[in-house]
Amino acid sequence: MAACPACDAPLPEGHRACPDCGTLANFSLERARGTEGQATRQTAQARKEIGLLRATGVEPPIAERLADKADAEARQGRFPQAHAYAQAARRAVTIAKTRARLQEDLARQEEAVRLAKQGGADTEAAEKALQSAAEALREGRLRIVPTWLKKASVRTAEETRVKSAESVVAAAEKAIRYAKERGADVAAAEAELAKARDALRAKAFDAAREAAAGARDAAEHARKHGRYEKFILSAEHHVDLARKSGASLAEARRLITEARHALRDGLFADAQAKSAAAKEAVAEAKRFRAAEVVLARVEKLARKEERRGTDVAGPGVALIEAHDALDAHEYRRLRDLVRDTREAIADAVVARRLRSTLIGLSEGVQELRTIGADPSEAEGFLGQATAALEALDFDGCRRFVEPPAGLSSCSFI
Predict the structure, then answer these.
(1) Other CB atoms within 10 A of residue 13 CB
(2) Tens digits of per-residue pLDDT, 337-350?
(3) Are 397 and 383 in contact (CB under 8 A)?
(4) Over the stretch 169-208, which tens digit does the pLDDT of each residue have?
(5) DSSP class per residue in 372-408
């Protein structure tokens, strides 16, 4: 194998110049040109560049060897050869610097390909390009290395974009399946997903990601729509069940309508809140209706007893307070007032019956006077019974007006 005429490095077959120092393969030191001053300046510049390159962490042994040769030739007075060696040393510095930079670029691209491969991207083409770049770098074909690195970078970027778009499409598919399993209407989401798949096949990655994101958003919206619609349907079911109760359901229906509007506008939290409020409105309407029924029954009882001649003035006051409690939705107070009204009506009925009995007894006393009998004892009992009735002592009144066991009312009188 031929050697470089300057640095003595082996020359690969077919190379027109040395891959280490850039000296042409057909160069001859006998044809070198240069003066002492040129040789001295070139050698000094070569030493400076070697020092700067070494400061970056790169060792240029070939450039160092060529600079030593230049110094040796200068000491022997062969300044043209010294000038040629110094120029070769500077080229060697440039080649070493370029090689180091390309080596770093190759390492970075290899790391990028490795990460892309870990992410699931198909990096076969990029790896082949990197192999070609590494081979060219080893052979000193430095000009072709950037081309191979660019190809590897392009392929890696493309495959990464493919994988990224596929991941977004897969996420959209998962979101659609999840929504469909929960009974959501995913027709719009599936249409967007079809667009994303078409764009992915056409390698329109940005369009694929955009359509996939739209599909995922549509699926999520459909899932939430289906979920929160169940709250509205539950509220509507409560309204249907409450229809037979006779309760006023206008407020509940208004809230359900507002919940439907919120659901249509995507305000899911508002839809849920208004559905819950509608159910509470149904429960409140039922409570109000039940209270109305109870109050109506006791009013009916009061009117019935009033027609019978019972004094319902006292229960009437309690009924007025019960209506006020109903208007204020104070159901516990209403129940207490209704109970008190029933008890007051019952007492009024007892008082009416006892009063009728006392009237009958008073007539019996008059009959005693008519027949000439002594009514004083009967009058005493009648007076005590009347006093007990006025004091609402119904038991005491009964003891005076009811005959003892075994006696008829006439013999008692």
Answers:
(1) 7
(2) 999 999 999 988 98
(3) no
(4) 999 999 999 998 888 888 999 999 999 999 888 888 889 8
(5) T---HHHHHHHHHHHHHHHTT-HHHHHHHHSPPTT--
